[in-house]
Write a structure and sequence with these properties.
The protein is of the alpha+beta class. The protein has 17 helices and 31 strands. A hairpin with a 5-residue loop joins strand 16 (about 280-285) and strand 17 (about 290). The relative contact order is 0.12. Bound molecules: oxalic acid (OXD) and manganese (II) ion.
């Protein structure tokens, strides 16, 4: 497939260590993919679903101990510990290579090693970066075929160069005690072992497109961010683009594919999805920030996806999709998950592979769920009804606004605008949210998640903030930076804001601000809308007073938050830029003055 010495020598070394029975190169062809699907079905690795209702769709179940990313077992292996920083787990590269070599040695005996040449972003484009993933899992191959651009053209574009990300994945024994997801940014290398769960093994995604890419971005002057990208088309045909960063499972995929409320759709507004999870951003010749989605598919959370919450995602999954850890509906050989509809199947198998009795389902007891809360669909971007026509534009799209967000029951208002790029970077650095099921560990605990990148920065968090600040000085026409919180609750714990498609009302205010078309109130935290400037026409139960409540800045809870931020900054450590401390001190002073 290639004469590239770097590629050949590296594969030789990895094969000597893992000792597969055979090596198969993935060429990106449909014939090869089809043969692999058939093989996976013959061994039980995948189940072919009803081809009339769900053409080319399959179901896979992971091991029960292997259902989410494992931050505790994810390492950044830089030669100096301080370069990985305090927020990441660190291991010395030599120690990590030695430890994992033991686990990899002979792990592919009796198995096949698949060689997947893939590109993040469009092959040959200025944004493109290439990777090769070696894996002994057909499931990984089939997912990578959906999530990235795979094929011989990648090898052609790579030519004789050694500039590619070397990814090695072995399932080994799926032993959680020996599960490691390790990144060697100085060597362009990722080693993953003892997992079969997407976020740990689809190495193009979090491992490459965020952790390694963020490291490369800092070195090369661009940004890799945990952001969706969407376009809002105005009735006159002009489209404005927004990037938004939210911690895992805060509704990024839903926002990326939102359906405009009637108020806007009847006037001719449309929303287009460019990406739902990752954005790579570069400064364009025109001085604006341009973004691409480096992925080629969606690895979305299934539970909660339905005709109301996200019809576009649901339709995207109707063909060519791999479902992982959802319910197998034996009534018609399809799939089901909590929140899909109100008709759970009575003859069904749960995500663990056991007979599932839907009558025993109790919302409060996760163990009665048929689908795992972090069950997923892997679906092709090109099957998405609202995919932007710019999705395959190698130049990307120009970004007007960057939106940060999180789940905050009380502190953050529905929306506010930072006062500058620098202040916006600070707003990103103090983001916080409640944990969800996408990562293993406690659910429902508030944690600080700067730029939604806490688990994904491939180097020291303080240096990452410094990179944000530096980027602000080289983007002459930088996007404006905002913060949103769709999750504010009333005293009974109920969400006040309807969310979903109605979030467009907030995005319209954001874009109006970018164009200088609407005034706002300056508060200690930044610019907050006048309640009447967010359009609530046709919204049930939301009055001007509700809007005022949603937009209040509670000084006391912010002052409490400031203390928590100070602790977090101390935890991030020595490399927090002084500018961030200055911003924090200024925020505290403004809050105190407003008391
Ligand atoms: C994801 C995540 O996108 O965990 O899977 O952020
Ligand atoms: Mn994500």
């Amino acid at each position: 497939m290639t004469k590239n010495k770097f590629v050949i020598n590296w594969i030789d070394d990895m094969a000597k260590m893992t000792q597969p029975d055979k090596i198969v190169w993935i060429d990106g062809s449909e014939e090869q993919a089809e043969a692999l699907r058939a093989e996976a079905c013959s061994t039980g690795e995948m189940i072919k679903l009803n081809q009339e209702l769900l053409p080319n769709c399959y179901l896979h179940r992971t091991a029960v101990n292997d259902v989410a990313r494992v931050e505790g077992r994810t390492f950044i292996c830089t030669s100096k510990k301080e370069d990985a920083g305090n927020i990441n787990n660190w291991m010395a590269p030599s120690e990590c290579y030695a430890k994992l070599t033991k686990l990899y040695t002979g792990s592919m005996k009796g198995r096949t090693m698949y060689v997947i040449p893939y590109s993040m972003s469009i092959v040959g484009s200025p944004f493109a970066k290439y990777g090769i993933e070696l894996t002994d899992s057909i499931y990984v191959v089939l997912n990578m075929l959906i999530m990235t651009r795979v094929g011989t053209d990648v090898l052609e574009a790579l030519g004789e160069s050694g500039d590619f990300i070397k990814g090695l994945h072995a399932r080994a024994d799926i032993d959680e005690e020996n599960r490691y997801i390790c990144h060697f940014p100085e060597d362009n290398t990722i080693w993953s072992v003892n997992s079969g769960y997407g976020g740990n093994v689809l190495l193009g995604k979090k491992c490459f497109a965020l952790r390694i890419a963020s490291y490369l971005g800092r070195k090369e002057g661009w940004m890799a961010e945990h952001m969706l990208i969407l376009g809002i088309e105005y009735p006159d045909g002009e489209t404005k683009y927004v990037c938004a960063a939210f911690p895992s499972a805060c509704g990024k995929t839903n926002l990326a594919m939102l359906i405009p409320p009637e108020l806007y759709s009847k006037k001719g507004y449309k929303v287009w999805c460019v990406g739902d999870d990752i954005a790579w951003l570069r400064v364009g010749e025109d001085g604006r920030l341009w973004a691409v989605n480096p992925e080629n598919g969606f690895f979305g959370v299934a539970p909660g996806t339905n005709e109301n919450s996200n019809p576009n995602a649901l339709h995207t999954t109707m063909k060519d999709t791999i479902f992982t850890n959802v319910v197998h509906n034996l009534e018609n050989n399809t799939v089901w998950w909590e929140g899909l509809d109100k008709n759970p199947p009575h003859n069904a198998i749960d995500w663990k592979g056991n007979v599932w009795d839907c009558t025993k389902y109790d919302k409060k007891d996760k163990s009665t769920c048929g689908a795992h809360p972090n069950s997923r669909f892997t679906a092709k971007a090109t099957n998405c009804p609202c995919l932007s026509k710019e999705f395959n534009n190698p130049a990307g799209v120009p970004i007007s606004a960057i939106v940060f967000g999180g789940r905050r029951a009380k502190t953050a208002p529905l929306v506010y605008q930072s006062t500058s790029w620098q202040n916006g970077a600070f707003v990103g650095s103090i983001m916080a949210s409640e944990t969800t099921a996408a990562a293993a560990g406690a659910v429902g605990v508030v944690r600080r998640d700067p730029m939604a990148m806490r688990p994904f920065v491939g180097y020291d968090m303080g240096d990452y903030w410094a990179h944000w600040l530096k980027m602000g000085t080289v983007i002459p026409n930088a996007p404006k930076i905002f913060h949103v919180n769709w999750f504010r609750t009333d005293d009974n714990g109920n969400f006040i804001w309807p969310g979903f498609g109605d979030n467009m009302r907030v995005l319209m205010w954001i874009l109006a601000r970018c164009e200088g078309k609407v005034n706002a109130n300056i508060t200690p935290i930044g610019y907050v809308p006048n309640a009447e400037d967010i359009n609530i026409e046709g919204l049930d139960g939301i009055t001007l007073d509700t809007m005022k409540e949603l937009l209040t800045v509670d000084v006391d809870s912010w002052l409490e938050d400031v203390q928590n931020i100070k602790e977090f900054y101390a935890q991030v450590g020595d490399r927090v830029p002084q500018t961030m401390y200055d911003e924090l001190a200024a925020l505290e002073a403004r809050l105190n003055a407003a008391k």
